[in-house]
């Protein structure tokens, strides 16, 4: 257990569905991240929230919509995804934007059909 | 933006020493870190360098040269359980931005 919990662990959704990924951290951190990990590709930074404000958006398509209601919770809302969006979505947290160590959740394995 | 380069694969025998190199480009630099990821698992933190030099943590050491935009992870006394992917990551641009390299798959053999 890393102190970062992601749900669900696995998700299969159709291209017309709307779903949300949830991340919760119990570490008292104030920065949270969404990463996408596809086969044979590096971890791609999607969004960064620091003190509940979005500080990074790495040109992510609008069909991905993040939400950070408080410093412990982070959501990724999914809408009209494409098959190429199938990947492992990882949430991470750190203490402050310059925290030396990021703690990752176990990820959500997303399959878009 | 940020970019990092690492070898894609490395193979070594049990008990040996292996070095995984990482070169990076970033506008603004706060530190270089290393993560380990086993198949099916989440990345876990190994080490962090903000200043030049060597940081040692048990069998693992990490080195940084900021003038060369270069670092490496040194794994000693390799064990089978060390077979995993290893990522370097740079905190740069803004302190909040943690960008990962392409990952190096380490295979430890008997």
Structure description:
The complex is a heterodimer of chains A (113) and B (110). Chain A is built from no helices and eleven strands. In chain A, a hairpin with a 2-residue loop joins strand 7 and strand 8 (73-79). The model of chain A has no long low-confidence stretch (mean pLDDT 90). Chain A is an all-beta fold and 113 residues long. Chain A has strands at 4-7, 10-13, 18-25, 31-37, 44-50, 53-57, 64-70, 73-79, 87-94, 103-104, 108-112. In chain A, the strands form two sheets. In chain A, strands 2, 4, 5, 6, 9, 10 and 11 form a seven-stranded mixed sheet that branches. A four-stranded antiparallel sheet of chain A has the order 1-3-8-7, with no helix packed on it. Chain B is globular. In chain B, the strands form two sheets. In chain B, strands 2, 4, 5, 9, 10 and 11 form a six-stranded mixed sheet that branches. Chain B has a five-stranded antiparallel sheet with strand order 1-3-8-7-6, with no helix packed on it. By secondary structure, chain B is an all-beta fold. The termini of chain B are far apart. Chain B has strands at 3-5, 9-13, 18-25, 29-37, 44-49, 53-57, 60-65, 70-75, 84-92, 98-100, 104-109. In chain B, strand 7 and strand 8 form a beta hairpin. Chain A binds chain B through residues 2, 31, 33, 35, 41-43, 45, 48, 50, 55-56, 90, 92, 94, 96-98, 100-107, and chain B through 4, 30-31, 33, 35, 41-45, 48, 50, 87, 89, 91, 94-103.
Return the structural class of chain B: mainly beta
Cα(first) to Cα(last) distance of chain B is: 41 Å
Helix content of chain B: under 10%
Number of helices of chain A: 0
- Low confidence ranges of chain B: none
Could you tell me the mean pLDDT of chain B? 93
Q: How large is the share of residues in beta strands of chain A?
A: over 45%
**What is the helical fraction of chain A, as a range of percent?**
under 10%
**Quick check: average pLDDT of chain A?**
90
SSE-based structural type of chain A: mainly beta
- Tell me, briefly, the overall form of chain B: globular
**Apparent shape of chain A:** globular
Number of DSSP helical runs of chain B = 0
Q: Give the amount of beta strand of chain B, in percent.
A: over 45%
Oligomeric form: heterodimer
Most residues in contact: chain pair: A-B, 26 and 25 residues
Strand elements of chain B, count: 11
Helix and strand pattern of chain B = EEEEEEEEEEE
Order of H and E elements of chain A: EEEEEEEEEEE
Record field, number of beta strands of chain A:
11
Tell me the radius of gyration of chain A: 13 Å
């Amino acid at each position: 257990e890393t102190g970062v919990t992601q749900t669900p662990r696995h998700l299969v959704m159709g291209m017309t569905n709307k779903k949300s990924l949830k991340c919760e951290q119990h570490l008292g951190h104030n920065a949270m991240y969404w990463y996408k990990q596809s086969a044979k590709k590096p971890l791609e930074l999607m969004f960064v929230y620091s003190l509940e404000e979005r500080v990074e958006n790495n040109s992510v398509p609008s069909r991905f919509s993040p939400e950070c209601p408080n410093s412990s919770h982070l959501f990724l809302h999914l809408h009209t995804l494409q098959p190429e969006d199938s990947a492992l979505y990882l949430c991470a947290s750190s203490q402050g934007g310059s925290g030396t160590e990021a703690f990752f959740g176990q990820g959500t394995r997303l399959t878009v059909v | 933006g940020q970019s990092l380069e690492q070898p894609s694969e490395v193979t070594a025998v049990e008990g040996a020493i292996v070095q995984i190199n990482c070169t990076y480009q970033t506008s603004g630099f706060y530190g270089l870190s290393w993560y380990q990821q086993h198949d099916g698992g989440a990345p876990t933190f190994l080490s962090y360098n903000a200043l030049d030099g060597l940081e040692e943590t048990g069998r693992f050491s990490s080195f940084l040269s900021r003038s060369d935009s270069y670092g490496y992870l040194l794994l000693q006394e390799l064990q089978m359980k060390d077979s995993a992917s290893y990522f370097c990551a740079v905190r740069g641009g803004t302190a909040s931005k943690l960008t990962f390299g392409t990952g190096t798959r380490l295979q430890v053999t008997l």
